[in-house]
Amino acid sequence: MAKKSGGRLVSSAGLVTYYDSEDRRAIHISPTTVMIAAGVIAVITIVLNALY
Known about the structure:
Radius of gyration: 20 Å
Largest sheet: none
Distance between the termini: 60 Å
Structural class: mainly alpha
Strand content: under 5%
Helix content: 40-55%
Low-confidence stretches: none
Number of strands: 0
């Protein structure tokens, strides 16, 4: 049987460590920007679908 190392939860699959760490070099996008971009892409898709 393999030994458990680090004392992390087995079921979390490393996600706890990933979300707990803050990387200041990472790109931060606000949720509002993501929603606006999704809306713009949806409108463009609908317009292109109607034209072609």
